[in-house]
Amino acid sequence: MNQVNIPATNKPVVVIIGGGFGGIEVAKKLRGQPVQVIILDKHNYHTFQPLLYQVATAGLEPDSIAYPVRKIFKKQKNFVFRVAEVLKIVHDINCVQTSIGSIRYDFLVISTGTKTNFFGLKDVQNNAMVLKTLPDALNLRSLILQNFEETLLITNLDDRDSLMSVVIVGGGPTGVELAGALGELKRFVLPRDYPELDIRKMQIHLIERSPRLLPAMSAKASSKSLQFLEKFGVQVWLDTAVENYDGRKVALSNGKMINSQTMIWAAGVKGAIVEGIEDALGESGRRLQINNTFNVVGHDNVYAIGDVAEMQTRAHPNGHPMLASVAIQQGRHMARNIRLMLKNKPALPFVYKDKGSLATIGRNKAVADLPFIKTQGFLAWFLWISIHIVALVGFRNKLVAFVNWGWSYITYDKGIRLIIRRFEKKGGNS
Amino acid sequence: MNQVNIPATNKPVVVIIGGGFGGIEVAKKLRGQPVQVIILDKHNYHTFQPLLYQVATAGLEPDSIAYPVRKIFKKQKNFVFRVAEVLKIVHDINCVQTSIGSIRYDFLVISTGTKTNFFGLKDVQNNAMVLKTLPDALNLRSLILQNFEETLLITNLDDRDSLMSVVIVGGGPTGVELAGALGELKRFVLPRDYPELDIRKMQIHLIERSPRLLPAMSAKASSKSLQFLEKFGVQVWLDTAVENYDGRKVALSNGKMINSQTMIWAAGVKGAIVEGIEDALGESGRRLQINNTFNVVGHDNVYAIGDVAEMQTRAHPNGHPMLASVAIQQGRHMARNIRLMLKNKPALPFVYKDKGSLATIGRNKAVADLPFIKTQGFLAWFLWISIHIVALVGFRNKLVAFVNWGWSYITYDKGIRLIIRRFEKKGGNS
Questions:
Q1: Which domains does chain B have, with CATH numbers?
Q2: Counting one residue from A and one from B, how many pairs have CB atoms under 8 Å apart?
Q3: How many angstroms away from the CA of A283 is the closest CA of chain B?
Q4: pLDDT in tens, B344-391
Q5: What chain A residue is nearest to B59 in terms of C-alpha separation?
Q6: Are B415 and A404 an interchain contact pair (Cβ–Cβ within 8 Å)?
Q7: What distance, in Å, lies between the first and last C-alpha atoms of chain A?
Q8: Whole-angstrom distance, CA of residue A287 vs CA of residue A280
Q9: How far apart are alpha carbons A267 and A265 in whole angstroms?
Q10: CA of A83: which chain B residue's CA is closest?
């Protein structure tokens, strides 16, 4: 395999796989250090993943939650970026093989995030939509709108209902926020767009295997989010699993069947593992096992941070929660450790600082478990909006998101109802 | 062919093919009238076509220049919208056949706009990009950015130059505005994004067959736009035609060759004609011939407006210019005539009121031929920005465009440099 054309250097090379929250943070905090920092990502932009559901439900444009990687680093001289897919890590020779050639590293940081876990349900995998990337979100937006346009053309009532209905699997933050946003569309937007249709027939189902929504949050957050969702007309199924989905009928573990031509699978993820590092997967086989300095078990100068990594601690025996704030803290600490190692000092163990979590259900309705306050309703919603505006990368993106949200709030409208590229159902998520 | 499922009515049915500037205006001005208004369009949104080049050059997000058709008409009770492609007009039975079934009409308004005219140059058609729709603009944006990412990977200097270079064919408003926007990218944005590349090697060529740019505007506008473009580093070729393009080399009528892997064809259009109406094409075979009440020659209750139509008048022997303001005036007048005909009064002849035209080359640089003033430079640019902000449909779109332009102006930056969907060169425009 050819070497990738990279500016020559005699400094140590830090290769970072993945430009998510963790990877970006490592590179930023190595600014001005005597290293060459290389980020590899399949896309030329960083995605603000927690807001993908807003793109899927016409609340934000894709451009507001994406930020060009090169723009983040435009003034950082030790930074190199390449759009590439990493195919294999060849640890013996400190080298990653990619779609554009091979690259040598002195330090390797794996921050590849997760991919969807279908738990072996092949039919679900072939027929469900997922929500991991911007194209996924745009496909979902197109599909929901296309379904409504198609409903207008048919007269069979069963087909109409199943075209209008949506089943969301997984009651974590993604599922809950998506269900809430669809509930808002159903209540405020779609009746105005489709006066010819009886929008009450649109059913939004949210299916969660455990006894409560948002299992990682407080009991109060769970019960309030359930209450908010039911107010928006979402039908929540707790203690229920999906057994099969053929593209039209959802078979549930309680024996019931739901008619729906749209299923969104948000029920589980696993680490996005690169070939050559599989031996570091833990018993669950889902995430890379790391020690308290992010070192991947069994690989000297290879590190993993963020959702792909599992650091087992007393407080978090199954690793830290998969949150942007965890990845950012880990990225920052990873960079600090690299700076220490460059000076031949020992790396310091990572200590996680819980920043809490929030989920929004819709207009004036959110739940927040924060270190200083647990709250539900308007205040939580206001906190959610504020935190997300601040967290969005780049002033332009903040301002555009602020305009969109302000506009939606005042008008009860969601402006981005565009089928820019038709989604053609083919089946088969990888 | 099945009838399309449309709400039953005993009122006259006005079918409008195409939701561009003209078609939208007809439907709006028939609000509250005793007719059923049906718009058919391939997309669920109206595109603000004059700003497509801004999307292609990362200046605006696609969502700012698109507006959902249903949203425009959400309070109009006599309005019906269907996403459909019209296949054929069967005039004998007052019926259009579409991709979703057939629809009967009492009045038919054809406002399908134009499609690209390659003048029989097959190789150009297979290898050039066009800029007619939002997906076209997004493909072009992706391609330009992909080319730069690819340039980083190769070492052959000739290949590098041809990947970075862009050839624009056609010195009308689209070609001039696109060339100017690319010139800005080259000057202000790309050097910061790609410090590894020698951006001076990026060549932007603009090729125009006639002796001057913007042939439809004043001589002063032509000479000033040439001067502005040259200041931005654009190489302008006047009195020059393209003879061939194989995807790598552009053969010019003056015998010269230009190396470029990206050509954008903006050199000509022809009416987007629907089957069943070809007999109304004029001698040039490019547009539907209409009389001064928009009646398509030889077809009683069929009308055509906007770019697809050609009303020959003393002032405009080849029909009116292809401008949004013409289509809007014609749409408004068409609706007025339908209202008259409903009352059994005769339709009134259309009189065009010239609103002038503008073209922007870049930062502080535009040319304007307006009824009250002909000006070039900052004032023209300021007028251009103001008129386009006002003309964008919807407050949200205006505000987001304003934010983006304001942001770009202050920072010399264009924020939307995203390859959201990779463009795969396949060749073959239809």
A1: 13-42+84-116+270-342 (3.50.50.60), 122-267+356-411 (3.50.50.100)
A2: 138
A3: 36
A4: 999 999 999 999 999 999 889 999 999 999 999 999 999 999 999 888
A5: A63
A6: no
A7: 25
A8: 8
A9: 6
A10: B149
